[in-house]
Amino acid sequence: MARVRYVTKLEQIKQLSDSEYRRLKPVADKYAFRASDYYLKLIDWSNPDDPIRRIVIPHIDELREFGDLDASGEQTNYVAPGCQHKYPHTALLLCNEVCGAYCRFCFRKRFFMPGGNETERDVAPGINYIRKTPQITNVLLTGGDPLMLSSRRIEAILSQLRSIPHVGIIRIGTKMPAFNPYRIIDHPQLTATLSRYSTREKRIYLMVHFSVPQELTDRAMLALDMLMKCGVVVANQSPIIRGVNDDPDVLAELMRKLSFVGVPPYYFFQCRPTVGNEPYELSLVETYQALEEAKKQVSGLAKRARLVMSHETGKVEMVGLSNEHMYLRYHRARDPKNEGRFMIFHRDDEAYWLDDLIPVQYPPHPVHTHGHREHHAIGPE
Q1: 363 to 18, 141, 174, 377: CA distances (angstroms)
Q2: Model pLDDT for residues 147-165, shown as the tens digit of each residue
Q3: Of the candidates 166, 182, 172, which has an alpha carbon nearest to the alpha carbon of residue 232?
Q4: Which of 177, 175, 183, 21 is closest to 105 using CA atoms?
Q5: Residue 56 CB contacts under 8 Å (≥ 6 apart), including other chains
Protein backbone atom coordinates (compact mmCIF):
# COMPACT_ATOMS: atom_id res chain seq x y z
CA MET A 1 0.00 0.00 0.00
CA ALA A 2 1.40 3.39 -1.02
CA ARG A 3 1.74 5.98 1.73
CA VAL A 4 0.58 9.32 0.33
CA ARG A 5 1.26 12.32 2.53
CA TYR A 6 -0.62 15.59 2.38
CA VAL A 7 1.40 18.81 2.44
CA THR A 8 -0.32 21.87 3.90
CA LYS A 9 2.57 24.31 4.41
CA LEU A 10 4.70 25.91 1.74
CA GLU A 11 7.82 25.53 3.89
CA GLN A 12 7.47 21.75 3.43
CA ILE A 13 8.18 22.13 -0.29
CA LYS A 14 11.95 21.96 -0.55
CA GLN A 15 11.95 22.85 -4.24
CA LEU A 16 10.86 26.42 -3.43
CA SER A 17 13.71 28.82 -2.81
CA ASP A 18 13.70 31.00 0.30
CA SER A 19 12.79 34.04 -1.79
CA GLU A 20 9.93 32.19 -3.49
CA TYR A 21 8.63 31.05 -0.12
CA ARG A 22 8.69 34.55 1.34
CA ARG A 23 6.96 35.97 -1.73
CA LEU A 24 4.22 33.33 -1.83
CA LYS A 25 3.53 32.91 1.89
CA PRO A 26 1.09 35.89 2.03
CA VAL A 27 -0.90 34.22 -0.77
CA ALA A 28 -1.07 30.90 1.06
CA ASP A 29 -2.02 32.73 4.26
CA LYS A 30 -5.03 34.21 2.47
CA TYR A 31 -6.01 31.26 0.25
CA ALA A 32 -5.21 27.87 1.75
CA PHE A 33 -2.53 25.64 0.24
CA ARG A 34 -2.78 21.86 0.18
CA ALA A 35 -1.35 19.13 -2.07
CA SER A 36 -0.41 15.47 -1.95
CA ASP A 37 3.23 14.45 -2.22
CA TYR A 38 2.19 12.16 -5.10
CA TYR A 39 0.87 15.15 -7.06
CA LEU A 40 3.82 17.39 -6.23
CA LYS A 41 6.14 14.77 -7.73
CA LEU A 42 4.45 15.32 -11.11
CA ILE A 43 5.77 18.89 -11.23
CA ASP A 44 8.77 19.68 -13.43
CA TRP A 45 10.40 22.12 -11.00
CA SER A 46 12.89 23.26 -13.64
CA ASN A 47 9.97 24.73 -15.60
CA PRO A 48 8.48 27.82 -13.89
CA ASP A 49 5.45 27.49 -16.20
CA ASP A 50 4.79 23.84 -15.42
CA PRO A 51 0.97 23.42 -15.56
CA ILE A 52 0.69 21.19 -12.50
CA ARG A 53 2.75 23.68 -10.53
CA ARG A 54 0.28 26.33 -11.67
CA ILE A 55 -2.68 24.23 -10.52
CA VAL A 56 -1.57 23.90 -6.88
CA ILE A 57 1.32 26.28 -6.08
CA PRO A 58 0.24 29.84 -5.11
CA HIS A 59 0.83 32.72 -7.50
CA ILE A 60 1.52 36.24 -6.28
CA ASP A 61 -1.12 37.70 -8.63
CA GLU A 62 -3.86 35.93 -6.66
CA LEU A 63 -3.65 38.93 -4.31
CA ARG A 64 -4.89 41.30 -7.01
CA GLU A 65 -8.34 42.77 -6.46
CA PHE A 66 -10.74 40.71 -8.55
CA GLY A 67 -14.08 38.94 -8.52
CA ASP A 68 -16.52 37.74 -5.88
CA LEU A 69 -16.08 35.16 -3.14
CA ASP A 70 -19.28 33.40 -4.29
CA ALA A 71 -19.20 34.16 -8.01
CA SER A 72 -22.16 31.91 -8.85
CA GLY A 73 -24.40 32.95 -5.97
CA GLU A 74 -24.43 29.47 -4.46
CA GLN A 75 -25.55 30.71 -1.06
CA THR A 76 -28.99 31.43 -2.56
CA ASN A 77 -29.43 27.73 -3.43
CA TYR A 78 -29.56 26.21 0.08
CA VAL A 79 -32.76 24.43 1.07
CA ALA A 80 -31.29 22.60 4.08
CA PRO A 81 -27.90 22.65 5.82
CA GLY A 82 -25.33 21.40 3.30
CA CYS A 83 -27.95 20.85 0.56
CA GLN A 84 -28.46 23.00 -2.54
CA HIS A 85 -31.40 22.72 -4.93
CA LYS A 86 -31.01 25.00 -7.95
CA TYR A 87 -32.43 22.95 -10.83
CA PRO A 88 -35.70 20.99 -10.55
CA HIS A 89 -34.29 17.47 -10.89
CA THR A 90 -30.85 17.91 -9.27
CA ALA A 91 -29.76 18.40 -5.65
CA LEU A 92 -26.25 18.88 -4.26
CA LEU A 93 -25.05 17.43 -0.97
CA LEU A 94 -21.95 19.27 0.25
CA CYS A 95 -20.63 16.53 2.49
CA ASN A 96 -16.97 17.43 2.94
CA GLU A 97 -14.87 20.60 3.11
CA VAL A 98 -11.45 19.08 2.25
CA CYS A 99 -9.84 18.08 -1.08
CA GLY A 100 -6.78 16.02 -1.90
CA ALA A 101 -5.24 19.32 -3.02
CA TYR A 102 -6.57 22.82 -3.47
CA CYS A 103 -6.67 24.14 -7.02
CA ARG A 104 -5.57 27.76 -6.96
CA PHE A 105 -8.55 28.74 -9.13
CA CYS A 106 -11.13 26.94 -6.96
CA PHE A 107 -14.56 28.59 -7.10
CA ARG A 108 -15.32 27.39 -3.56
CA LYS A 109 -12.14 28.62 -1.89
CA ARG A 110 -14.44 30.31 0.64
CA PHE A 111 -14.91 26.83 2.15
CA PHE A 112 -11.23 26.73 3.10
CA MET A 113 -11.16 30.19 4.66
CA PRO A 114 -12.02 31.20 8.24
CA GLY A 115 -15.79 31.12 8.67
CA GLY A 116 -16.38 28.75 5.77
CA ASN A 117 -19.14 26.51 7.12
CA GLU A 118 -21.36 25.57 4.17
CA THR A 119 -20.59 21.83 4.23
CA GLU A 120 -22.18 19.42 6.69
CA ARG A 121 -20.83 16.24 8.23
CA ASP A 122 -24.43 15.43 9.15
CA VAL A 123 -26.14 15.03 5.78
CA ALA A 124 -29.44 13.90 7.35
CA PRO A 125 -31.25 17.25 6.83
CA GLY A 126 -30.28 17.26 3.15
CA ILE A 127 -31.26 13.63 2.64
CA ASN A 128 -34.59 14.24 4.37
CA TYR A 129 -35.24 17.15 2.00
CA ILE A 130 -34.40 14.96 -1.01
CA ARG A 131 -36.66 12.18 0.32
CA LYS A 132 -39.58 14.63 0.53
CA THR A 133 -38.96 16.14 -2.93
CA PRO A 134 -39.95 13.55 -5.56
CA GLN A 135 -38.90 15.63 -8.59
CA ILE A 136 -35.24 15.18 -7.55
CA THR A 137 -33.88 12.27 -9.57
CA ASN A 138 -30.20 13.24 -9.56
CA VAL A 139 -28.02 13.86 -6.49
CA LEU A 140 -24.48 15.21 -6.69
CA LEU A 141 -22.12 14.56 -3.78
CA THR A 142 -19.61 17.37 -3.68
CA GLY A 143 -17.71 19.62 -1.32
CA GLY A 144 -14.68 19.52 -0.94
CA ASP A 145 -14.01 16.07 -2.34
CA PRO A 146 -16.33 13.28 -1.15
CA LEU A 147 -13.63 10.64 -1.72
CA MET A 148 -11.68 12.23 1.14
CA LEU A 149 -14.35 10.77 3.42
CA SER A 150 -13.80 7.31 4.87
CA SER A 151 -15.18 4.41 2.85
CA ARG A 152 -17.55 3.63 5.71
CA ARG A 153 -18.90 7.17 5.65
CA ILE A 154 -19.35 7.06 1.87
CA GLU A 155 -21.28 3.80 2.19
CA ALA A 156 -23.56 5.32 4.82
CA ILE A 157 -24.45 8.21 2.50
CA LEU A 158 -24.92 5.99 -0.57
CA SER A 159 -27.13 3.53 1.28
CA GLN A 160 -29.44 6.31 2.45
CA LEU A 161 -29.70 7.79 -1.05
CA ARG A 162 -30.34 4.37 -2.59
CA SER A 163 -33.28 3.92 -0.21
CA ILE A 164 -35.06 6.84 -1.92
CA PRO A 165 -37.01 5.42 -4.90
CA HIS A 166 -37.04 8.60 -6.99
CA VAL A 167 -33.24 9.09 -6.88
CA GLY A 168 -32.01 7.45 -10.07
CA ILE A 169 -28.52 8.90 -10.44
CA ILE A 170 -25.91 9.54 -7.77
CA ARG A 171 -22.98 11.62 -8.97
CA ILE A 172 -19.72 12.06 -7.09
CA GLY A 173 -17.51 15.01 -8.01
CA THR A 174 -13.86 14.16 -7.37
CA LYS A 175 -10.29 14.93 -8.38
CA MET A 176 -8.82 12.14 -6.29
CA PRO A 177 -7.89 9.96 -9.30
CA ALA A 178 -5.60 12.85 -10.30
CA PHE A 179 -4.50 14.06 -6.86
CA ASN A 180 -4.13 10.64 -5.20
CA PRO A 181 -5.12 7.59 -7.28
CA TYR A 182 -4.07 5.32 -4.41
CA ARG A 183 -7.31 6.31 -2.66
CA ILE A 184 -8.94 3.98 -5.20
CA ILE A 185 -6.13 1.50 -5.86
CA ASP A 186 -5.38 0.65 -2.23
CA HIS A 187 -8.89 0.77 -0.76
CA PRO A 188 -10.94 -2.27 -1.78
CA GLN A 189 -13.71 -1.27 0.63
CA LEU A 190 -14.29 1.86 -1.47
CA THR A 191 -14.47 0.02 -4.80
CA ALA A 192 -16.70 -2.67 -3.28
CA THR A 193 -19.05 0.03 -1.96
CA LEU A 194 -19.25 1.75 -5.33
CA SER A 195 -19.92 -1.59 -7.02
CA ARG A 196 -22.70 -2.41 -4.54
CA TYR A 197 -24.60 0.82 -5.09
CA SER A 198 -23.99 1.28 -8.83
CA THR A 199 -26.65 -1.08 -10.09
CA ARG A 200 -27.93 -2.08 -13.51
CA GLU A 201 -31.01 0.07 -12.96
CA LYS A 202 -29.41 3.02 -11.17
CA ARG A 203 -25.78 3.91 -11.83
CA ILE A 204 -23.28 5.94 -9.88
CA TYR A 205 -21.52 8.54 -12.02
CA LEU A 206 -18.03 9.64 -11.01
CA MET A 207 -17.30 13.09 -12.36
CA VAL A 208 -13.50 13.20 -12.37
CA HIS A 209 -11.40 16.33 -12.90
CA PHE A 210 -8.39 15.87 -15.16
CA SER A 211 -7.14 19.20 -16.48
CA VAL A 212 -3.84 18.36 -18.21
CA PRO A 213 -2.44 15.21 -19.88
CA GLN A 214 0.35 14.94 -17.28
CA GLU A 215 -2.25 13.99 -14.67
CA LEU A 216 -3.14 10.82 -16.61
CA THR A 217 -0.31 8.77 -15.13
CA ASP A 218 -0.16 4.98 -15.16
CA ARG A 219 -1.49 4.95 -11.57
CA ALA A 220 -4.31 7.36 -12.46
CA MET A 221 -5.33 5.21 -15.43
CA LEU A 222 -5.28 2.10 -13.22
CA ALA A 223 -7.60 3.86 -10.76
CA LEU A 224 -9.96 4.83 -13.60
CA ASP A 225 -9.96 1.26 -14.89
CA MET A 226 -10.80 -0.08 -11.42
CA LEU A 227 -13.66 2.39 -11.09
CA MET A 228 -15.14 1.44 -14.45
CA LYS A 229 -14.88 -2.26 -13.57
CA CYS A 230 -17.00 -1.46 -10.50
CA GLY A 231 -19.85 -0.54 -12.83
CA VAL A 232 -19.35 3.17 -12.22
CA VAL A 233 -19.84 5.53 -15.17
CA VAL A 234 -16.83 7.86 -15.31
CA ALA A 235 -16.82 11.22 -17.14
CA ASN A 236 -14.47 14.18 -17.02
CA GLN A 237 -14.99 17.88 -16.43
CA SER A 238 -12.47 20.69 -16.13
CA PRO A 239 -12.21 24.45 -16.29
CA ILE A 240 -10.04 25.95 -19.02
CA ILE A 241 -7.34 27.89 -17.21
CA ARG A 242 -4.75 30.40 -18.39
CA GLY A 243 -1.31 28.82 -18.36
CA VAL A 244 -2.68 25.34 -17.59
CA ASN A 245 -4.72 24.02 -20.51
CA ASP A 246 -5.52 27.04 -22.71
CA ASP A 247 -3.18 25.82 -25.44
CA PRO A 248 -5.36 24.00 -28.03
CA ASP A 249 -2.68 21.32 -28.51
CA VAL A 250 -2.69 20.58 -24.77
CA LEU A 251 -6.48 20.47 -24.67
CA ALA A 252 -6.58 18.17 -27.68
CA GLU A 253 -4.06 15.78 -26.10
CA LEU A 254 -6.11 15.73 -22.89
CA MET A 255 -9.36 15.05 -24.77
CA ARG A 256 -7.70 12.38 -26.88
CA LYS A 257 -6.19 10.53 -23.91
CA LEU A 258 -9.45 10.68 -21.99
CA SER A 259 -11.32 9.16 -24.93
CA PHE A 260 -8.69 6.42 -25.25
CA VAL A 261 -9.14 5.33 -21.61
CA GLY A 262 -12.94 5.46 -21.88
CA VAL A 263 -13.57 8.62 -19.86
CA PRO A 264 -15.51 11.00 -22.10
CA PRO A 265 -15.12 14.75 -21.61
CA TYR A 266 -18.47 15.99 -20.26
CA TYR A 267 -18.03 19.69 -19.47
CA PHE A 268 -15.36 22.29 -19.97
CA PHE A 269 -16.00 25.30 -17.76
CA GLN A 270 -15.30 28.98 -18.07
CA CYS A 271 -13.19 29.85 -15.01
CA ARG A 272 -15.49 31.60 -12.54
CA PRO A 273 -14.61 35.19 -11.58
CA THR A 274 -13.89 34.22 -7.99
CA VAL A 275 -11.60 36.27 -5.75
CA GLY A 276 -7.98 35.33 -6.31
CA ASN A 277 -8.63 34.00 -9.82
CA GLU A 278 -7.39 36.94 -11.88
CA PRO A 279 -4.13 35.24 -13.02
CA TYR A 280 -6.08 32.17 -14.20
CA GLU A 281 -8.88 33.86 -16.12
CA LEU A 282 -9.40 33.79 -19.86
CA SER A 283 -11.93 35.84 -21.75
CA LEU A 284 -14.95 33.96 -23.06
CA VAL A 285 -13.66 34.42 -26.60
CA GLU A 286 -10.23 33.01 -25.70
CA THR A 287 -11.79 29.99 -23.98
CA TYR A 288 -14.16 29.30 -26.85
CA GLN A 289 -11.46 29.59 -29.49
CA ALA A 290 -9.04 27.33 -27.59
CA LEU A 291 -11.65 24.58 -27.28
CA GLU A 292 -12.83 24.89 -30.89
CA GLU A 293 -9.24 24.63 -32.15
CA ALA A 294 -8.67 21.58 -29.95
CA LYS A 295 -11.82 19.90 -31.29
CA LYS A 296 -10.39 20.03 -34.80
CA GLN A 297 -7.64 17.63 -33.71
CA VAL A 298 -9.74 14.84 -32.13
CA SER A 299 -12.41 12.30 -33.01
CA GLY A 300 -16.10 12.72 -32.33
CA LEU A 301 -15.92 10.58 -29.19
CA ALA A 302 -13.32 12.94 -27.73
CA LYS A 303 -15.21 16.20 -28.34
CA ARG A 304 -18.65 15.64 -26.87
CA ALA A 305 -18.10 18.14 -24.05
CA ARG A 306 -20.02 21.40 -23.78
CA LEU A 307 -18.37 24.72 -22.91
CA VAL A 308 -20.41 26.27 -20.11
CA MET A 309 -20.26 28.88 -17.40
CA SER A 310 -21.98 28.16 -14.08
CA HIS A 311 -23.80 31.45 -13.66
CA GLU A 312 -26.12 32.37 -10.81
CA THR A 313 -29.08 32.14 -13.20
CA GLY A 314 -28.08 28.79 -14.72
CA LYS A 315 -25.57 26.80 -16.71
CA VAL A 316 -24.97 28.89 -19.83
CA GLU A 317 -23.42 27.23 -22.88
CA MET A 318 -21.37 29.18 -25.41
CA VAL A 319 -22.43 27.79 -28.78
CA GLY A 320 -21.05 30.16 -31.40
CA LEU A 321 -18.91 33.16 -32.26
CA SER A 322 -18.83 35.50 -35.26
CA ASN A 323 -16.95 38.69 -36.00
CA GLU A 324 -19.81 40.70 -34.51
CA HIS A 325 -21.75 38.44 -32.16
CA MET A 326 -21.50 35.78 -29.41
CA TYR A 327 -24.17 33.08 -29.24
CA LEU A 328 -25.17 31.51 -25.92
CA ARG A 329 -28.01 29.37 -24.60
CA TYR A 330 -29.24 28.18 -21.24
CA HIS A 331 -28.29 24.51 -20.92
CA ARG A 332 -29.83 24.54 -17.43
CA ALA A 333 -31.77 27.42 -15.88
CA ARG A 334 -32.83 28.33 -12.37
CA ASP A 335 -36.05 29.73 -13.83
CA PRO A 336 -37.67 26.96 -15.92
CA LYS A 337 -38.94 29.59 -18.37
CA ASN A 338 -35.32 30.18 -19.42
CA GLU A 339 -34.53 26.52 -20.07
CA GLY A 340 -33.00 26.27 -23.56
CA ARG A 341 -33.25 30.02 -24.10
CA PHE A 342 -31.03 31.25 -26.96
CA MET A 343 -29.22 34.58 -26.56
CA ILE A 344 -27.22 36.83 -28.88
CA PHE A 345 -24.70 39.35 -27.55
CA HIS A 346 -22.32 41.83 -29.11
CA ARG A 347 -18.86 40.29 -29.37
CA ASP A 348 -16.59 41.44 -26.54
CA ASP A 349 -13.08 39.97 -26.54
CA GLU A 350 -12.49 41.27 -23.00
CA ALA A 351 -15.60 39.74 -21.38
CA TYR A 352 -15.03 37.06 -18.73
CA TRP A 353 -18.60 36.34 -17.65
CA LEU A 354 -22.23 36.61 -18.70
CA ASP A 355 -22.62 39.84 -16.75
CA ASP A 356 -19.98 41.50 -18.93
CA LEU A 357 -21.88 41.02 -22.19
CA ILE A 358 -24.11 43.57 -23.92
CA PRO A 359 -27.14 42.07 -25.68
CA VAL A 360 -28.18 42.70 -29.21
CA GLN A 361 -31.74 43.20 -27.90
CA TYR A 362 -32.95 44.43 -24.53
CA PRO A 363 -36.03 42.67 -23.12
CA PRO A 364 -36.08 41.71 -19.40
CA HIS A 365 -33.45 39.18 -18.40
CA PRO A 366 -32.90 37.21 -15.16
CA VAL A 367 -29.29 38.24 -14.51
CA HIS A 368 -28.90 39.93 -11.13
CA THR A 369 -26.77 43.00 -10.49
CA HIS A 370 -23.57 41.41 -9.25
CA GLY A 371 -21.14 41.53 -12.18
CA HIS A 372 -17.65 42.96 -12.09
CA ARG A 373 -18.64 45.62 -14.62
CA GLU A 374 -21.27 48.29 -14.25
CA HIS A 375 -23.65 46.99 -16.92
CA HIS A 376 -25.64 43.74 -16.74
CA ALA A 377 -26.13 40.98 -19.24
CA ILE A 378 -29.57 41.06 -20.85
CA GLY A 379 -30.33 38.48 -23.51
CA PRO A 380 -32.98 38.29 -26.19
CA GLU A 381 -35.95 35.99 -25.99
Answers
A1: 56, 37, 39, 11
A2: 999 999 999 999 999 999 9
A3: 172
A4: 175
A5: 33, 34, 35, 39, 40, 101, 102, 103, 104
